[in-house]
Write a structure and sequence with these properties.
alpha+beta, about 15% helix, Thrombin, subunit H, 6-stranded antiparallel barrel
Length: about 525
């Protein structure tokens, strides 16, 4: 009897942990097929998920832009039902399905026309959301045409508008860039060149090789067509390419109407400006950034789509008869490193956790691995070399990449020294007033004699005053591309003061060996 009690007690004590470990994931997809046979994701469809028999109120979830939802559930039988029907191409659809979730095993539920209750749209007109009037349907139908754009200083969104490879985005995110990296999928990234950069209209048109977008539907701008009016309070949705690599759908409403700009309460993900915005009437514009609003407290601005029409006409003239950009795929973003592997590497490290350093005449160079970044995360005052500025979010998950950071050396000018000396004679001790010896422009890296293309040639900008800034290079490389296997690794750094003359240095083989050791344990 005593043994049975001990067993029962042990099971009772173990049950909380067992319950926590028993959670499984239910993967739900909701799609409908249109008249042409194309699958359309049902975005932001509300589903109610409750246990059977009912124990408490069901959980309400919304599908993503891709018509998907992932839900963590304990083992049991569940009811998955539509909160409201959805109307699509004249018919109303809603779902009521039952599914068993087993401990330790994920479950999949596909909601399609095959398992939906279908009626004519008029029968459910009071509650159904029509695909003809719901901007989320329009947005989800065009999500594949939205892409990520990378420049050295910005991440943004753009969208394909012409089968010849033309892309629209806002000019503010591109700035003075003449090219960008255009990423259409996790495994497709190519070079895009800037054809038109119109600051006044805040419109930019980029061009990629047409073969890259042959499977995508260009989003028609509707230039020259009469558009439905846009009014305050009108519902709208924007699509943005997020730093996570996914396209996100953001709902909102119009808060102000102008001839060129709309004000909205959209709250898109950071660094995703430039994506298309839809109302029930179709495409109305694209999101932009406001340089006057560093705290992001004001309404999100939307550039009206008509502003892009003149720029598109200019771009069409430029591409006529011109050689399209190269279709060669660029290096891709690496996966993140497991945190437990980083923790073990830091714990077992015998030496310093400082980045590996070298220098040139005008610049300090630091080679940074995920081990260095993880080791610095708990420091009370992290070193400036670990401040990645606008790219901190990109690096937050510790991608398996080698960072090469190029920082201008700081020097004190003659007259600054004279001024400090004069102040000293008056009993005032001033700190050294230093400025960058030479501004960073760009860097090239070589494995032997072969140039290595970086995953990203980032730049980190540090404002020193309202009119001056210091730029640092922050180049992201595949660690396998620069290592002991190379006969030699060389870097050439170009400065703003002498843009045509590079300073070339050979990386110490000991540093290469240390880099290889850091990545070998990850």
């Amino acid at each position: 009897m005593r043994g049975a009690l001990l067993v029962a007690s042990a099971l009772a004590l173990a049950s909380p942990g067992t319950y926590a470990q028993a959670l499984s994931t239910l993967h739900i997809t909701v799609t409908l097929t249109d008249a042409t046979g194309r699958k359309t994701p049902v975005a932001r469809h509300a589903l109610l998920i409750g246990e059977e028999p009912p124990i408490k109120e069901p959980r309400r979830i919304l599908t993503t832009l891709a018509g998907t939802a992932d839900v963590s559930l304990k083992p049991g039988r569940y009811a998955v039902e539509s909160d409201q029907p959805v109307s699509f191409e004249g018919k109303s659809y809603e779902w009521a399905q039952r599914i068993d979730v087993v401990a330790g095993r994920d479950a999949t539920l596909e909601l399609t026309a095959a398992n939906a209750s279908i009626s004519t749209a008029t029968a459910a007109a009071t509650s159904a959301t029509s695909s003809d009037t719901d901007p989320s349907f329009l947005a989800s139908a065009w999500q594949a045409s939205v892409l990520a754009l990378w420049t050295p200083t910005q991440h943004a969104s753009g969208f394909v508008v012409d089968a010849r490879g033309l892309i629209v985005t806002n000019q503010r995110v591109l700035g003075t860039a003449t090219s960008a990296e255009a990423q259409f999928a996790p495994d497709i990234k190519v070079r895009a060149i800037v054809l038109v950069s119109d600051f006044a209209r805040d419109v930019a048109i980029l061009w990629v090789n047409p073969s890259v977008i042959s499977s995508l539907r260009p989003l028609p701008l509707g230039c020259g067509q009469t558009r439905p009016p846009v009014t305050n309070g009108q519902e709208l949705y924007s699509i943005g390419a997020e730093l996570t690599g996914r396209n996100g759908l953001t709902p909102g409403k119009v808060t102000g109407v102008g001839p060129r700009l709309l004000l909205t309460d959209l709250a898109p993900a950071r660094a995703s400006a430039g994506g298309p915005v839809f109302t029930a009437g179709g495409l109305i514009g694209f999101t932009t950034v406001d340089n006057r609003d560093p705290d992001n407290r004001s309404d999100t601005r939307v550039v009206r789509i008509d502003e892009a029409c003149d720029a598109l006409a200019d771009a069409e003239t430029k591409v006529a008869g011109a050689m399209p950009p190269d279709a060669m795929h660029l290096p891709l973003d690496p996966p993140p490193v497991a945190v437990d592997a980083l923790a073990a590497a830091v714990k077992n490290r015998a030496g310093s956790l400082s980045p590996y350093a070298m220098s040139t005449t005008n610049f300090d160079v630091a080679f940074i691995t995920p081990v260095h970044m993880y080791g610095a995360k708990d420091q009370a005052a992290p070193r400036p070399v670990m401040d990645f500025g606008t790219w901190s979010e990109y690096l937050a998950d510790y991608p398996r990449a080698l960072l090469v950071r190029v920082t201008p050396k700081m020097v004190e000018g003659l007259w600054a020294k004279v001024a400090r000396g004069a102040a000293m004679t008056q009993g005032v001790a001033l700190p050294a007033m230093k400025r960058a010896k030479s501004g960073f422009l760009r860097m090239r890296a070589f494995c032997g004699d072969a140039e290595v293309t970086p995953i990203h040639p980032f730049v980190v900008e540090h404002r020193t005053s309202e009119t001056e800034a210091i730029d640092e290079g922050l180049y992201v490389f595949d660690p396998a591309a620069l290592g002991p296997k190379c006969s030699a690794v060389k870097i050439t750094i170009y400065s703003e003061g002498d843009p045509d003359k590079g300073d070339t240095r050979i990386v110490d083989p000991k540093v290469l060996q240390q880099l290889a050791q850091d990545f070998a344990v990850l």
